[in-house]
Amino acid sequence: MTDRRIFVKVPASTANLGPGFDTLGMALSLYFWIEMSGSTNGDTSINLYGDGLNGIARDKSNLIYKVAQLVFNEAGVSLPELSISMYSDIPLTRGLGSSASAIVGALVAANALIGGPLSDDNLFQLATKLEGHPDNVGASLFGGIVISAWDGTRAAKVRLEPHSQLEVLVAIPAFQLSTEKARHALPTQITMKDAVFNLGCSSLLVAALASGQLDLIPFAMRDRLHQPYRAALIPGMAEILDNATEHGALGAALSGAGPTLLALVDASSTRKEELEQFLIDTLSKEGIHAKTLWLQPCAKGPELEVLEGPVAAGYSFLERVKGEKGI
Length: 327
Ligand SMILES: Nc1ncnc2c1ncn2[C@@H]1O[C@H](COP(=O)(O)OP(=O)(O)O)[C@@H](O)[C@H]1O
Ligand SMILES: N[C@@H](CCOP(=O)(O)O)C(=O)O
Fold this sequence. Notes:
By secondary structure, the protein is of the alpha+beta class. The protein folds into two domains: 4-161 and 298-325, Ribosomal Protein S5, domain 2 (2-Layer Sandwich); 166-295, GHMP kinase, C-terminal domain (Alpha-Beta Plaits, 2-Layer Sandwich), CATH 3.30.70. Helices cover 35% and strands 25% of the residues. It has helices at 63-75, 98-113, 120-131, 135-142, 179-184, 192-211, 217-220, 227-230, 237-243, 272-285, 317-325; strands at 4-15, 24-38, 45-49, 82-88, 145-150, 155-160, 166-173, 251-254, 261-266, 290-295, 303-308. Strands 1, 2, 3, 4, 5, 6 and 11 form a seven-stranded mixed beta sheet that branches. Strands 8-9-7-10 form a four-stranded antiparallel beta sheet. A hairpin with a 6-residue loop joins strand 8 and strand 9. Helix 1 packs across helix 2 and helix 3 runs antiparallel to helix 4 (135-142). It is globular, with a radius of gyration of 20 Å. The protein starts with a strand and ends with a helix. Ligand LJ64HWYM binds at residues 15-16, 21-22, 95-97, 99, 133, 135-136, 179, 182-183, 226, 256-257. Residues 15-16, 21-22, 95-97, 99, 133, 135-136, 179, 182-183, 226, 256-257 line the site of the ligand N[C@@H](CCOP(=O)(O)O)C(=O)O.
């Protein structure tokens, strides 16, 4: 056991896609890497690499450590001391599913470390309970576009292959907004009219994505359940959601709980620069600096490697991640 190491790459995710609050998720080509092994010196060590994980706990209060222990408890195994290394390109608390990627990475790595006793569905159930909603964890665990429902006890899902013409532009504001805070902005009740509106848009969006009818996205990607209530937390958001299609987007949404804004774009669009500038300028008018990234839907879930035997001399987790990133 102590000579086994698990190396996992997990995609980020965007949740909701507008109308599918707590239901729709799509994996994105932005990643979190983790390596986990049993400790060889009897102590737990948590090594954070890069600038992306600043502020994350390095002791046993760390989310990854706690999730790993949950897997071991579930499987009836005792492995209290771990060696964990991680690196992330997924910005924290920006609405790109960093917590879901961390949870999924920890579940997959810990499960593989003890020989994989838990099924993917077991991991999905655990991840959903930990995250409190299935949308981000479903996308990070299965890749592609994942539609899920959770009744508080069990989650069920269907995965769709993303359309090959879909591209994703994200504008990531330079401020953090925790999911917890953005959920507190939501009302406890909504009208029947708004519920029906969202049901229609969300169902239509899923059908459009499943059948490749991208022309329906502008109509379907509208929401009255969460975005109107969160708009006050992200100046410029309402203007972007209202006008992105006029600048070449298929549709636009708040990514997860925000503050990141996301546009779906046809890969063959000739208006990508115009759209990117529109997002940057609209946020800038509000005094918000935002970083834009062009991403692809990620069709794969976690990519895992089981490494057996002693660590090779000169091995470096960070160099390995850099190698994967091509830097
Ligand atoms: N690799 C990680 N290790 C430990 N905790 C993490 C890791 N990644 C994210 N988290 C936790 O998740 C929080 C962010 O979750 P959340 O507010 O839901 O935003 P989002 O998931 O959209 O990035 C972080 O502040 C941190 O507490
Ligand atoms: N459905 C959730 C999604 C939260 O996503 P995150 O990436 O912001 O954690 C919500 O809208 O609250």
